User: Which sequence fits this backbone?
């Protein structure tokens, strides 16, 4: 039996039915596409993933990226992958046509990457970082930088990175020490170190274009004094020849998971002059970098959902093939004379599988929801544009965090389905479990995302972002109330909207009095509650469309397919949405147990 890592029917159902993606194609920006052409793209990337990505995922883990003779060596299959990715325009697919892109909707760009990440999560990061770096140059760089670097990056002949983290600073970008000294020739001398640089070096890139944050001499302290630079591994002279730019690869971080995806330590300017070119204006680097960081946060959440998808189908296949134990009889006893039953028939295994399914499909819908907001912002003007911008800003930390945290829970349940075999290297679940653990750390930890949500995003425009999201949700609640079977679930979601307001009303006085530590102390708990509710909204949307299709005898998908969506929605509301009241109780409890706690408590 062939292994499955994604359900393409579910992806299409969410795109076309739940999120009404085809309506977007009537916009001038995207009217070169129709449903048929989009389906061809989806199928082409699925074929590419089946052939060139999925067969190598275990081997990339067993033969990881290594540091050897001052260079990073990655799996040989990447040569073919990068060549194919360049030929298929997978790097600049969402870029404007005049910039060499396909002008694809971001929603489809994310869908294509989701397929690839489910097939092999060690691969798309190389592509995504190159895409993000190229887009940053296109957005804020001058014409010379665009012409010199972007074309080769779109062909995937040159790679790209984002260089933020430093050994002494970690996630605190206000503490970076990499320096940039301006020269009379127009470039800057770069000196410093960067760590945890994904795809920072490998043998299949003719050049690596680093988008690097540094501090110009005399710049203001903190994040207000950070500038953005293009710093290539190799300089390019007027003839196009490459020469060293004194970017030294100091080592490879040997990781627990995603071992085929290299993570490097880079040193700039130790062995000679390392030249960098300013992107945009001085001291505005962090605001520019936030474009790439926000793109990367959605991409990271997408990767978490994709890994969880692959793990779900691996555990589902095992459950359908593994006989063990016997069903209970009506008397509550097992019939020793009867044959063994498949483990998928055991209620607790069904619970774990349904939990996986509810998390995976709910997370995917959340990602597509945010992607649609991005596309709507891009094709709107005035108040509508601001509306979609605010909705996207509010959802971005949730899109990054829910698939990361709950995706890990999902994969853990998948491993549990296999029992002892799940812990063995003969089966891939243990690899997915290791691979997904980094997702909650990449691009800002869960704590950082949670502080962003509670400390910044819920208060955007004096609460307008949250109000706009509430209106969106209430529209779907109204649609759900048209179906008697969905009434109780619609009411539960409405109650949870009120619960969010109740929690915020309890917490806000702490912020208003200047006690921000108390206000944000349990931000991760708020994230868990809020994320659970938002995914509950996504499941209600799916159930509404499934119920409508059944009643109108729509046959685009089977009746069983539609019924599975409603059944999984009911499972999510029983097992997940019921947790929000307990989380709210924690948030409204006045006991200060994690603020200014005496360190002796931990002895």
Assistant:
């Amino acid at each position: 039996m062939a292994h499955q890592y994604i359900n393409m029917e579910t992806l299409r159902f969410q795109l076309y039915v739940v999120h009404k993606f085809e309506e977007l194609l009537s916009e001038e920006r995207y009217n070169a596409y129709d449903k048929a052409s989009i389906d061809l793209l989806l199928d082409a990337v699925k074929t590419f993933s089946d052939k060139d990505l999925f067969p190598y995922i275990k081997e990339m883990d067993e033969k990881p990226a290594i540091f050897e003779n001052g260079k990073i060596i990655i799996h040989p299959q990447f040569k073919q992958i990068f060549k194919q990715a360049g030929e298929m325009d997978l790097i600049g697919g969402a870029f404007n046509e005049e910039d060499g892109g396909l002008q694809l909707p971001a929603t489809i760009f994310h869908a294509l990457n989701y397929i690839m990440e489910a097939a092999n999560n060690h691969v798309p990061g190389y592509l995504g970082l190159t895409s993000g770096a190229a887009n940053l140059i296109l957005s804020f760089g001058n014409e010379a930088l665009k012409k010199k670097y972007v074309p080769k990056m779109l062909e995937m002949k040159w790679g790209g990175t984002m260089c933020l983290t430093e050994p002494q600073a970690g996630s605190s970008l206000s503490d970076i020490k990499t320096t940039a000294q301006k020269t009379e020739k127009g470039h800057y001398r770069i000196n410093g170190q960067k760590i945890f640089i994904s795809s920072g070096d490998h043998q299949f890139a003719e050049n690596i274009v680093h988008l690097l944050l540094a501090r110009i001499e005399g710049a203001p302290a903190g994040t207000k004094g950070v500038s953005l630079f293009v710093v290539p591994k190799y300089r390019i002279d007027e003839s196009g020849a490459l020469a060293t730019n004194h970017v030294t690869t100091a080592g490879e971080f040997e990781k627990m998971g995603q071992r085929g995806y290299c993570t490097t330590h880079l040193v700039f300017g130790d062995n000679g002059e390392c030249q960098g070119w300013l992107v945009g204006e001085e001291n505005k680097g962090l605001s520019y970098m936030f474009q790439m960081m926000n793109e990367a946060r959605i991409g990271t959440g997408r990767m978490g959902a994709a890994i969880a998808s692959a793990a779900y189908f691996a555990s589902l296949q095992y459950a359908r093939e593994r006989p063990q134990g016997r069903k209970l009889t009506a008397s509550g006893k097992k019939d020793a004379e009867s044959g063994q039953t498949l483990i998928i028939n055991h209620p607790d295994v069904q619970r774990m599988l349904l939990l996986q399914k509810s998390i995976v499909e709910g997370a995917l819908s959340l990602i597509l929801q945010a992607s649609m907001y991005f596309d709507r912002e891009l094709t709107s003007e005035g108040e509508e544009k601001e509306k979609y911008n605010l909705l996207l800003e509010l959802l971005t930390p949730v899109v990054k965090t829910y698939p990361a945290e709950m995706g890990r829970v999902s994969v853990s349940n998948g491993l549990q389905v296999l029992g002892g075999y799940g812990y063995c290297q003969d089966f891939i679940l243990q690899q997915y479990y290791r691979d997904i653990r980094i997702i909650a750390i990449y691009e800002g930890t869960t704590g950082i995302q949670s502080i962003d949500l509670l400390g910044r995003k819920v208060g955007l425009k004096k609460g307008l972002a949250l109000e706009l999201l509430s209106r969106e949700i209430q529209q779907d609640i109204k649609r759900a109330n048209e179906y008697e079977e969905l009434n109780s679930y619609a009411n539960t979601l409405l109650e949870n909207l009120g619960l969010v307001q109740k929690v915020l009303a309890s917490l806000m006085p702490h912020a208003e009095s200047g006690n921000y530590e108390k206000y944000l102390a349990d931000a991760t708990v708020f994230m868990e509650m809020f994320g659970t509710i938002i995914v509950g909204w996504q499941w209600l949307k799916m159930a509404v469309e499934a119920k409508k299709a059944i009643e109108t005898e729509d046959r685009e998908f089977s009746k069983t397919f539609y019924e599975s969506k409603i059944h999984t929605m009911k499972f999510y509301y029983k097992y997940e949405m019921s947790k929000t009241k307990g989380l709210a109780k924690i948030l409204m409890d006045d006991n200060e147990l994690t603020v200014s706690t005496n360190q002796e408590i931990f002895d």
Observations:
- The first strand starts at residue 66 and ends at 68.
- The radius of gyration is 25 Å.
